Amino acid sequence: MTLRIEAVGTVVGGRTEVAHDYWGGIESIIRLDPTFPSEVVKGLDEFSHLLVTWHFSQSSPDDVGPCFQAMGPQGAIQEPSWPTEMLTDYWAVR
Fold it and tell me: Domain boundaries in the chain?
């Protein structure tokens, strides 16, 4: 099986070296590829955090590990009401 991943943008700023720790205070931007229309990020400003999936192109298997709650968003989480409404029954047992 082959999985093809097409990047939608590039991370600019922040770090240049591969490092696992000390991400506090690091600021970067995601520069959207010009082939994607700006409408794809419409409403994104209503959220306080963004989950970014990235390709481990500069990492080794030793760099990959579990996600701990302490690694999650820092500070208050802000979002519009529609995700809660949409996911009301997400964890329901059928």
Answer: 9-86
